[in-house]
């Protein structure tokens, strides 16, 4: 299934949601702002030019399917600074326990990058972390083992808890340069997974000059003027409430060769596909939660929050979490985490795929 081609937009800095379509390499959408004014026509032209070239990078990244396949799109900047470096983190949680449809798995405090993780599982099976006890979970009704693994492509390395919780302590700290998966699972020969959360990291291509900026990461392209963010290209998401599945594809640049250059010039962007993975494919999902961390967390969150309207979903499927007011898409967030939820009245199919690419700037 191909992602939705509709572009989505988002919110106001303070309180009021303002949706304003503007031209940024075509029709982009206001994500977070008061009314933006691009005062410098030269900067605006440069922004539109670079966003258009990032669209070509995005298209190249989305068009690779075989490991070691490569593309080398060219970026020509008229001025400013271009860099390939560290990007955002995204946590995708899906609940899908048919016997506990109110299950709400939450993984928090990972953004501290230490070994203490806050895990709550309201309405879920009781959490077990002790290895000896987990071995018998298959025969214990109403319990599930809380597993966590460090993920590198297709390889999962189990991380061990050192406490029965709460709080939950890992033997080693969360490494921001790796992906992780948290699962509620039994211990049968073919384990049954009741809920899972995928923590993905990504590198970012970024350009800036004067008061304007543009970024590509995770399949989305963001443009910025001052404090105003614009979504130039939507995340790779497709939802069809009531009749079809929810599909989310996250292309992630990882393990890239960080680099940068300044001034005018042309350079090729090396993209090599390392691997592709179906991270989750659940027929009876009851809720999806998206958490974002980093300096683009707010526009990322807002890009999903208003999809109800801008993707014509005919309902209120995306919502902020009233129980987590500090994680709202806008406003103050002490830990820089933003959260949005998606659910439907009935269970739905949810598919999460990830493609992992190595990036470089050929100077």
Condensed summary:
The chain has 363 residues and is mainly beta. It has 4 helices and 25 strands. A hairpin with a 2-residue loop joins β16 and β17.
Task: Characterise the protein shown here.
The protein is mainly β. Helices cover 11% and strands 48% of the residues. It contains four helices and 25 strands. It has helices at 41-62, 131-134, 297-305, 307-310, and strands at residues 11-12, 21-23, 27-33, 70-71, 74-77, 81-95, 104-108, 116-122, 126-128, 143-152, 155-159, 168-169, 179-185, 193-209, 212-217, 220-225, 228-233, 236-238, 246-253, 259-262, 265-285, 287-293, 318-319, 337-342, 348-362. It has a 16-stranded mixed β-sheet that branches. Strand 16 (220-225) and strand 17 form a beta hairpin.
Element layout with pairings:
Blueprint: E1 11-12, E2 21-23, E3 27-33, H1 41-62, E4 70-71, E5 74-77, E6 81-95, E7 104-108, E8 116-122, E9 126-128, H2 131-134, E10 143-152, E11 155-159, E12 168-169, E13 179-185, E14 193-209, E15 212-217, E16 220-225, E17 228-233, E18 236-238, E19 246-253, E20 259-262, E21 265-285, E22 287-293, H3 297-305, H4 307-310, E23 318-319, E24 337-342, E25 348-362
Mean of pLDDT: 86
Largest sheet: 16 strands, mixed
Written as H for each helix and E for each strand, in order along the chain, the element string is EEEHEEEEEEHEEEEEEEEEEEEEHHEEE
Helical proportion? 10-25%
Strand content: over 45%
The number of strands is: 25
Tally of helical segments? 4
Gyration radius, in Å: 21 Å
Q: Which regions have little confidence, pLDDT < 50, spanning 5+ residues? A: 1-27, 32-39
For the record, give the distance between the C-alpha atoms at the N and C termini, rounded to a whole number: 36 Å
Shape: globular
Oligomer: single chain
User: By helix and strand content, what is the structural category?
Assistant: mainly beta
